[in-house]
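Please review this pair:
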Amino acid sequence: MNVVESLEELQVKAMRDPDLRQMLLKTREENDPLEAFCKKCQELGYEIYPMELIVAGEEFYAAYRRSTNGGGENSPKLLGEDDFYEMFIANLESMGK
């Protein structure tokens, strides 16, 4: 399972489990939120590592920008842009509303 698939599966679980959602949201309070998030993912059985998460986010965002308006300066911005951790957390936060 790749990083994106793992994040999608984890997000579905977090939608169903408020305790899991809060546990993942708390990683934002750590000194190194990305490292804390990846460590928590690994404890949950998801082999997600900081560098893989960063690279996957950059690749996704680059492909997204290329597919919209040729990747020019008028391409839409994503919440969190190329940061899958920030996008994941933003989605979890929106679930609680």
The chain is about 65% helix and 0% strand. The two ends are 30 Å apart (CA to CA).
